[in-house]
Amino acid sequence: MGKSAKHIISYIAAISLLVGATVQLVHAETQEQPIVELHQAKLDQMLAPIALYPDSLLSHILIAATYPLEVVQAARWREEHDNLSEQQALDLAQEQDWDPSVIALTPFTELLARMSKDLVWLQSLGDAFLANEAQVLTSVQTLRSRAYVKGNLQDNQYQNIEREKDKIVIHSVERETVYVPYYDTRVVYGDWWWTVHQPIYWRTPRHYAYHSGIYWSPRFHISSGFFFGGFRWSNNYVVVNHDYRSRRSNHRYNYRQVREYPRWHHNSHHRRSVKYQTSQNSRHQRGITSRNYQSQQSQSHRTKVISGLKHKQAQHSRSEYRHKPSQNNKHDVFSKQGTSSNSKAFKVDKHRTKPERAYNSQRSERYSAKNEHVSRPTKAVKSAPMAHDRNKKIQVNRKVERTSSSKQQHRSQSSMRKHTNGHSNSAKHKGRTVEH
Fold first, then answer.
1. Are residues 174 and 261 part of one domain?
2. For 72-85, how does the pLDDT look when each residue is reduced to its tens digit (9 = 90+)?
3. Most buried residue, 43, 54, 171, 414, by CB count within 10 Å?
4. Domain count for the chain
């Protein structure tokens, strides 16, 4: 008995140590992490099309956004089972290994398809919700308050609006019934307060009914097991009660009861193979667009632009040495004309004296230097008028050369005539002397 008692005591001690270690790990996991401040303009832009949804539906959308792969799987599954009713789809989807909030969205075919198609919006929403849950819910209340002030969020036959201090709660009027609102985000909130980041707008389906500035979907009759999620607006976090899903009582969304539900925690199992945006501990809080994000992006963009300009400048300097004239380039045509005229000038200079040849060669070198300066691509804007002036100068030079060459020919001809006349006169003089 003594040995068995010792073994039992040792087992109990080992179990207590394991329990203490797990408690410490859980406590370490649940410690508050540094909150990431999200980009408010992008957050309002992202939440604009869903901020006026009923609380029960909105809570499922925010939770399901953290599991984007399962949302895509659920949308494809719903397309394959489009012949099922809302309640049948909800009951049959229980067999899938998906998060309960993803399963809760299976009756809403159009909403689920829209979420799966816009994957960038879906993943951004999930990352923002994991990074700063309180700021997301505060933005939802800000959007609701603006719509309420503009008179576009009121009680009607589809929804009830409750106010708890400065918080607005939205729930369906009928029991076990959900209506999905679609609205123009550019109108319902009034003048949008972010100029760069305009609100996301979803087109309204044709078969929706218009009432009080909002289009309403047909009625979705769903059992009370759908209403297991909601918000505790006083603390700005989402609450869920998965035990409530098994109930089949005739019940609707009751905020006083829902706010007492336990707080929701992210389950990494349903994240599947989708990577988180940043490395994180087991609590899986994710930081996305912080205030420093834009400065980092602008700085990286600036460095890329500067490096690109330097690369282009280096290529340009290299191309100056490898420049080859083409027939399509007007500047090269002007340079060709200049070189051809200069060659003609050199031919004419054969008959001139040495000082004139040196002067003309220097002038031709000046013109060639100007042509090279104009043919550079950096002076492309001023090359056309300079080339026009150059052509005029070349034409003037040609005329001068022609006149000079004609004068020289005239002089040579006159000298030849004089020489021949001189020879003829001398011959006549000799003849005369002989006769005498």
1. yes
2. 999 999 999 999 99
3. 43
4. 3
